[in-house]
């Protein structure tokens, strides 16, 4: 796709190269400082040094001799001290940007950067027979945003939900269900009941070796593929995934695969043998398989002395499988900060086993969630928040805001808007800043109609749509195409900003940082606010200007909707 800013840069580069004075390898364009009224700058220092002239002298000489394409996006060139500054032509910028956004619609920003490259994103990964807690909530939201961003760049993206559906503790889960019966509740409540059953069984087993033994027996039956054990386990998986699916739907989350840890069981023996053959793991006197002294990392196990395997063993098998199955360029793990050491050990081990070539392994770590009082959420502290309850709470609060701001909306629409606003608030609160940082559940800020919140962005979008709706109703004429009239500084600023989405997408991907898109959305809404304040739309001086401004409003609505969709946030038409 031929985007405006990319084309502008290419035109500037070509024009400089055509002078024959500056070798291509010293053409390093930069963004001018905020107080310089230009869009791209070429610092002259390197070229001037090579040519033995002073930078300002070279800048002046080039400004006088450079040829700009007559119908291109470059409007003017000017020497300012040691810099050669280039500015966009506002009229052609308007035509280019608005035509592109209109043509691309919901795909605005799409690129081919990632063509023929595969990225696997490991995210969400809840544990079976348990509710999703903070770690899974953040992983789900951040992971899906990254998936959307890489897809927009043309990568083949494979999302994999690495379910915690295996391990010794499943013996306890199954034994507890056998003892107390299947809970008759559903959704997150049923999962909470299973957690309670589990806790009761584990507590009782502490004083009763027979119970402990019985749980071990269930775990063995499960591993050996016993039909009853398998069926009960499958029931747990289905119950958990049905509950998770409700949350995923609300969050616009769609994960391609859910192989889960259990899938790797048949591959574990081979992985353990491979690690030993590669000389990175060894069997100790007790019979355990140990990895020691790997890149100065703490010792860890691949197999316990009783023959049991571990979370780590399954993660190694997962990488081997993913490399073989998908041939990815990158494997991205969206997992909480507490698992940093686990992932460092994992990555170091597979590299030592010879799997590192041609693939980058990345841990996108994220911080925790604090409650409104500034306390980290924890089960022990009793302030734990689970996903379904969190979304319900957010939607109830959002409904109160909608009732107050838009009492005239029909009841059903109020509920739909509240759902979009509430869920959007939770999602945006997670994505607006660096994932490494902790987030706070500060509802006032999350649902504020001003400031950096999803609600503010959704309002800005709805405002654009409402202007377009009124334009259709008031008989003054709809969108027009006299786009060269859009030269007011506030219009040009908004247009330049809209033009930045493709670049923001590349930066977000390179930094694994959805907040770059969030920043773009926020700045778009602010630029729109300034434009709307300074430039009358429905009452523009002429019908032609009105039509052109309506096109700008339509493009802003469309681009903002696109930006929010990349983050997994819905944009209602009315609020
Ligand atoms: N199920 C794990 C947990 O709840 C997260 C899994 C993350 N992904 C991975 N490949 N280890 O802690």
TrEMBL record:
UniProt catalytic activity: tRNA(Arg) + L-arginine + ATP = L-arginyl-tRNA(Arg) + AMP + diphosphate
Residues annotated as domain Arginyl tRNA synthetase N-terminal: 6-88
Keywords: Aminoacyl-tRNA synthetase, ATP-binding, Cytoplasm, Ligase, Nucleotide-binding, Protein biosynthesis
Record's protein name: Arginine--tRNA ligase
Short sequence motif 'HIGH' region: positions: 126-136
DALR anticodon binding domain span: 457-575
Annotated localization: Cytoplasm
Top enzyme class: ligase
PROSITE patterns: AA_TRNA_LIGASE_I
Gene responsible for this protein: argS
GO biological process: arginyl-tRNA aminoacylation
Subunit-level organization: Monomer.
Enzyme Commission number: 6.1.1.19
Species this protein is from: Candidatus Viridilinea halotolerans
MF terms (GO), sorted A to Z: arginine-tRNA ligase activity; ATP binding
SUPFAM superfamilies reported in the protein's UniProt record: Anticodon-binding domain of a subclass of class I aminoacyl-tRNA synthetases, Arginyl-tRNA synthetase (ArgRS), N-terminal 'additional' domain, Nucleotidylyl transferase
Annotated GO CC locations: cytoplasm
UniProt entry tagged with the keyword Acyltransferase: no
Assigned protein family: Belongs to the class-I aminoacyl-tRNA synthetase family.
NCBIfam families the UniProt entry points to: argS
Pfam families membership: Arg_tRNA_synt_N, DALR_1, tRNA-synt_1d
Organism lineage string: Bacteria, Bacillati, Chloroflexota, Chloroflexia, Chloroflexales
């Amino acid at each position: 796709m031929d985007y405006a800013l990319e084309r502008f840069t290419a035109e500037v580069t070509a024009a400089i190269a055509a002078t024959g004075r500056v070798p291509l390898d010293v053409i390093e364009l930069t963004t001018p400082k905020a107080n310089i009224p230009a869009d791209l700058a070429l610092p002259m220092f390197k070229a001037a040094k090579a040519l033995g002239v002073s930078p300002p002298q070279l800048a002046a000489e080039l400004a006088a001799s450079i040829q700009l394409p007559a119908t291109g996006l470059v409007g003017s060139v000017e020497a300012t001290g040691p810099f050669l500054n280039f500015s966009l032509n506002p009229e052609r910028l308007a035509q280019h940007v608005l035509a592109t956004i209109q043509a691309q619609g919901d795909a605005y920003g799409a690129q081919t950067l990632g063509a023929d490259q595969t990225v696997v994103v490991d995210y969400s990964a809840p544990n079976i027979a348990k509710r999703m807690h903070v770690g899974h909530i953040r992983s789900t939201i951040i992971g899906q945003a990254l998936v959307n961003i890489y897809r927009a760049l043309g990568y083949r993206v494979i999302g994999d939900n690495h379910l915690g559906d295996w391990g010794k503790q499943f013996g306890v889960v199954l034994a507890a269900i056998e003892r107390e019966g299947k809970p008759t509740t559903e959704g997150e409540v049923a999962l909470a009941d299973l957690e309670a059953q589990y806790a009761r069984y584990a507590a009782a087993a502490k004083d009763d070796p027979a119970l402990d033994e019985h749980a071990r027996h269930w775990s063995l039956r499960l591993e050996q593929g016993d039909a009853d054990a398998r069926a009960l386990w499958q029931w747990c998986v289905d119950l958990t995934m049905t509950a998770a699916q409700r949350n995923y739907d609300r969050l616009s989350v769609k994960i391609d695969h859910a192989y889960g840890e259990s899938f790797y069981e048949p591959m574990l023996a081979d992985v353990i043998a491979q690690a030993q053959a590669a000389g990175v793991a060894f069997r100790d006197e007790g019979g355990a398989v140990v990895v020691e002294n790997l890149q100065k990392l703490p010792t860890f196990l691949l197999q316990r002395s009783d023959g049991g395997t571990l979370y780590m063993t399954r993660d190694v098998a997962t990488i081997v499988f993913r490399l073989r199955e998908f041939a990815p360029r990158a494997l991205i793990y969206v997992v909480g900060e507490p698992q940093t050491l686990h992932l460092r050990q994992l990555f170091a081990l597979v590299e030592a086993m010879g799997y590192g070539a041609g693939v980058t392994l990345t841990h996108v770590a994220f911080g925790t969630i604090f409650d409104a009082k500034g306390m980290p959420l924890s089960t022990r502290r009793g302030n734990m928040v689970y996903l379904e309850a969190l979304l319900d709470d957010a939607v109830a609060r959002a409904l109160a805001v909608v009732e107050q701001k838009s009492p005239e909306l029909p009841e059903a629409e109020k509920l739909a808007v509240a759902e979009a606003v509430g869920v959007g608030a939770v999602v945006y609160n997670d994505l607006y800043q660096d994932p490494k940082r902790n987030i706070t559940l500060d509802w006032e800020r999350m649902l504020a109609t001003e400031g950096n919140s999803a609600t503010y962005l959704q309002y800005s979008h709805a405002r654009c749509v409402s202007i377009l709706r009124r334009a259709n109703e008031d008989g003054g004429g709809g969108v027009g195409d006299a786009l060269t009239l859009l030269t007011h500084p506030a219009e040009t600023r908004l247009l330049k900003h809209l033009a930045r989405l493709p670049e923001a997408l590349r930066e977000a991907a390179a930094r694994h940082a959805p907040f770059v898109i969030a920043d773009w959305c926020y700045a778009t809404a602010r630029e729109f606010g300034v434009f709307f304040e300074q430039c009358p739309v429905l009452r523009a001086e002429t019908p032609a200007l009105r039509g052109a401004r309506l096109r700008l409003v339509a493009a802003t609505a469309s681009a903002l909707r696109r930006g929010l969709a990349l983050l997994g946030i819905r944009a209602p038409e009315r609020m």
